[in-house]
Amino acid sequence: MKLNILKLAHLARPRTHEGAPAATNTPEQALRRSVLACMLWENEFYEDGVTMADRIRELVPKVAAEKVAALAVEARTAMKLRHAPLLLVREMARHAIHRGLVAETLVRVIQRADELSEFAAIYWADGRRPLSAQIKKGLAAAFTSFDEYALAKYDRAGIVRLRDVLFLSHAKPRDTAQAELWKRLIAGELTTPDTWEVALSSGGDKRTHWERLLTERKLGALALLRNLRNMKDAGVPEWQVVDALDVMRTDRVLPFRFLAAARHAPQWEEALERAMFRSLEETERLAGHTVILVDVSGSMVAPLSRRSQLLRTDAAYGLAVLLREIAEKVSIYTFSNSAKRIPPRRGFALRDAMESSQPHQGTYLGAALDAVDERYDRIIVITDEQSHDRVGAPRGKGYVINAASARNGVGYGPWVHIDGFSEAVINYICELENSEPR
Predict the structure, then answer these.
(1) DSSP secondary structure letter of residue 301
(2) pTM of structure
């Protein structure tokens, strides 16, 4: 009987999806790993989107209110996620111990006008009910942040319209001008915004539309990156696209977006690379020798969303490319069934070398760590953590950057665990080491 009990206890231990022993997480750790790499309701390689959303709902009441609120703000501002932080606030509104922070948190996570109506849709996903007082207060305060352009751009037909949110939240305008603006919103009389969607849907010559939008700087960073192929097909002069890329804002663009854009529009790779590196101009540098291990297993070669051609490897490659730029001395390996050292490269050439380094197969992180036979000051692993084999401790400072939202992972204990794949994870490593006593 004792042997049977021991066997059952062993089987009950957390495991990765590939069977390796995983860490036992606190509720806060579990919530962070579920949220910070989560494209809400989008399936990942190992888990479907509904499972991940349900896990987030289950974990919120188990974590202190101030921790959940801070996580929602971090997910929106540092990790550039849009829907996962809205779900966190919606779940906070269900629980008495969290409700007091709902309004102020909602104001901080709503940064685009369409998030007003998207939050209301999430709130009513399981049945229509009155908005709570804290929700009304938060939505009302957030509504005052948006001008006519923002409201007109995102006043789209849907289950919930912006005017519905305005009525339901009982928002109060700041002044007479805003009161008049809201009257036009209610009447459907907002000035049509000059966006690329509106311009192209109006008919006419596409090249002419693109050239005007570029000249007048009417394209945001993501719109520019997503439409490079369309501009090429329309015959837009290359110099004009390069000029736009050279002045685009990069503060809200995740690194993998540049890599994906270059894959579909390689003729602008040099300009895209410059734009990507601009985001690192103020970043602290990592002293000493850094080893980077990049997971290229089959589970990493999966789309970030069902409508996207972006892969989780794009996120991993983007972080590796940026780490390569800020580290004093670097060795880079990919790992799948085995570990492969990557020749000295930087920028997009490094991306190409990692992608072609080996087949996308299993996830043997433990063996990869054993294969790194050089001394280092720190080792940074970029992975979805679903190792087949047992993972030991690093031989120096060790960081695991988790690029997926699976329930269990291996990068805890002796490892500093970081969730998500924006450039904020690199800033965290730099700030952590710079704060240590010298």
Answers:
(1) S
(2) 0.90
